[in-house]
């Protein structure tokens, strides 16, 4: 990790700084609650007026995290000046397709030197950038930046089930600060400097979760699911290596760990989208009935376009993209995948390293 040329004020006086959480979905609410339970003063920006009103009235996020009583240390607002004033860490927990717009809206009120911490997993469709790339374009190349990722269903974290995640930053002291800030008896945080690998793992696993959901919805068993997870990891490593990530990062919590969780867990929104697709439900009907975003649907388009541009072979991503966006029948997709040219496994794994 490189040294930070201009340390953020949050690193100098964390005890006097608020934490701003942008987005009150299940993950933003859960992380805000975790920090509040550690005695931190947390302000949450809430996009939806009805959700904001209910949070103030009941201290429960009925829409995105029902049944979890939230700390009285949390305050809620729909105004950026109110949530950002005095903040030393700004935690972004909004969907990837709204990441750039939200940064543009809050930028005039952004506290100088505050750490921008992304908890968003996805890629921007138009630019094909990860959230770090979007943040540096929107906020300036020198923005102190970190990303939090790993296998972590929000409800299980809120229930204090043991969870391990990774925080990555190109600046060592920022990664270590965020590690200390979030670590709790039930929430173990590792550090990394490989932002590219951590963000790619968090984005790509959603695509493969849709794939395993499709298999489940079709009534298929564990053999195809294991094959998809394993070959999905190979595709993650292949693209990551092409973009300069450390391949080992994709075998860690933000890669393989999150891949296993979302490809096997019924709480995964992306997995559930796949299940319904495998059962023959049209995509637009599935998405209309969802309160929360399944990032893999949009990310599949961005990753497919990026892989095509870079010449990186990603047959599982391609198949999932075509099922989602080009009406390819799942049975036909499986048939094409199984009929591909026979290869040596390790050569196929490492061909772009």
Which terms would index this structure?
about 350 residues, globular, eight-stranded mixed beta sheet, Rossmann fold, disordered N terminus, N-(1-d-carboxylethyl)-l-norvaline Dehydrogenase, domain 2, 17 helices, alpha/beta
In whole angstroms, the N-to-C terminal distance is 22 Å
Output the strand order for the largest sheet: 3-2-1-4-5-6-7-8
Structural class, please? alpha/beta
Low-confidence spans: pLDDT under 50, at least 5 residues?
1-7
Q: Helix fraction? A: 40-55%
What can you tell me about this protein's structure?
- This protein folds into two domains: 9-193, NAD(P)-binding Rossmann-like Domain (Rossmann fold), CATH 3.40.50; 203-350, N-(1-d-carboxylethyl)-l-norvaline Dehydrogenase, domain 2 (Orthogonal Bundle).
- Helices cover 50% and strands 11% of the residues.
- It contains 17 helices and eight strands.
- It has helices at 9-12, 26-37, 49-58, 80-84, 99-106, 131-139, 154-158, 172-182, 195-217, 222-242, 253-264, 269-278, 283-288, 295-310, 315-325, 330-338, 345-350; strands at residues 18-22, 42-45, 74-77, 87-92, 115-118, 145-149, 163-168, 187-192.
- Helix 9 (195-217) crosses helix 15 and helix 15 runs antiparallel to helix 16.
- The protein is globular, with a radius of gyration of 20 Å.
- The two termini are 22 Å apart.
């Amino acid at each position: 990790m490189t040294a930070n040329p201009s340390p953020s004020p949050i690193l100098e006086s964390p005890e006097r700084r608020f934490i701003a959480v942008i987005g009150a979905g299940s993950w933003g609410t859960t992380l805000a609650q975790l920090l509040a339970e550690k005695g931190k003063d947390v302000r949450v920006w809430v996009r939806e007026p009805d959700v904001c009103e209910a949070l103030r009235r009941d201290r429960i996020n009925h829409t995105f995290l029902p049944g979890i009583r939230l700390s009285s240390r949390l305050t809620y607002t729909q105004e950026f000046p109110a949530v950002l004033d005095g903040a030393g860490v700004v935690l972004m927990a909004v969907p990837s397709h709204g990441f750039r717009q939200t940064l543009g809206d809050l930028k005039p009120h952004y506290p100088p030197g505050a750490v921008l911490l992304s908890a968003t997993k996805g890629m921007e469709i138009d630019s094909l950038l990860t959230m770090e790339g979007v943040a540096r374009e929107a906020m300036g190349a020198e923005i102190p930046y970190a990303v939090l990722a790993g296998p972590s269903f929000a409800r299980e974290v809120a229930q204090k089930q043991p969870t391990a995640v990774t925080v990555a930053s190109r600046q060592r002291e920022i990664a270590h600060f965020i590690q200390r800030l979030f670590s709790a008896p039930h929430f173990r945080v590792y550090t990394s400097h490989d932002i590219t690998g951590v963000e790619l793992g968090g984005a790509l696993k959603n695509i493969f979760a849709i794939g395993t959901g499709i298999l489940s919805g079709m009534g298929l068993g564990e053999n195809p699911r294991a094959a998809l997870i394993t070959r999905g990891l190979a595709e993650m490593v292949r693209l990551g290596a092409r973009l300069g990530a450390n391949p080992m990062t994709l075998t860690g919590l933000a890669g393989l760990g999150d891949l296993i969780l979302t490809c096997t867990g019924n709480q995964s929104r992306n997995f559930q989208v796949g299940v319904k697709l495998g059962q023959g439900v049209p995509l637009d009907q599935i998405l209309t009935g969802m309160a929360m975003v399944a990032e893999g649907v949009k990310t599949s388009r961005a990753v497919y376009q990026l892989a095509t541009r870079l010449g990186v072979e990603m047959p599982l991503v391609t198949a999932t993209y075509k099922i989602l966006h080009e009406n390819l029948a799942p049975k036909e997709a499986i048939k094409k995948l199984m009929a591909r040219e026979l290869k040596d496994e390790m050569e196929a794994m490492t061909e772009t390293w």
